[in-house]
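User: Can you help me understand a structure? I only have the sequence.
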Amino acid sequence: MLKKTEQGYYEFNKFKKFKGLVHGFSSRRFGDMRTKKLDNFLRVLNLQKKDLVLMGQVHGNKIKVVDEDDKGKVISGIDGMVTAKPGVVLGVKTADCLPILFYNPQDGVIGIAHAGWQGILAKIVQKVIDLMIKMGSFPSDILVGVGPYISKCCYVVDDQRIKKFIGEFGNFASMVYTNQKGFHLDLFVSTSNQLVQSGVPKENIFNSQICTSCQNKEFFSYRKDSKKTYGEMLGIISLNI
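Assistant: Let's start by predicting it. Here is the structure, written out as tokens:
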């Protein structure tokens, strides 16, 4: 479960138990992470911007292994990163898309992904797991946490997008439902399906169950916010030095 800390950011209970790991998700309280307010959030976690690695986030499925040489960079053309280097801070900015954290406590490998509907269709989470496996991880050891995102209650899409997801993942009863507003799509169902097919046990997958649109006073939402109120949140994961 994802819980709010006294400092105002959010963390997974399961991940919190590991002393060798730093992670968290900012809330609206910390401000727009596209600004210098990002520095303030990192300081709360005892981290520094110079150690942060960000992604271009192009709604694709390209993943990169990063190390100390990538600190302070925004790497273009990618939506996922993996590292085994302590002190490298992996970051993802979101405001409805799924911010996903990966951690293998057995071999000290971490990962992060930005998963919008296009990236999920392109199997980005599966590709992160595949890369961690290449680095020596067993999928059964990997823990995965999905931070705040727009849930199916508020994620209304057209029938063409529904057809794409059913065509790729099958007609899961829990993935799609309809009401007077239209077709509702649950992005977590297709995401967890990829993870399970990649060998990650269901009990190792943690859903924040926080909807950015429903809880718009606490989180930014691309769909719910206006141009005046819009911002982006930051999710981070890092191995302690």
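Now, to help you interpret it: The chain has one domain: 2-150+201-239. Residues 204 and 215 are 25 Å apart (CA to CA). Let me know which part you'd like to focus on.
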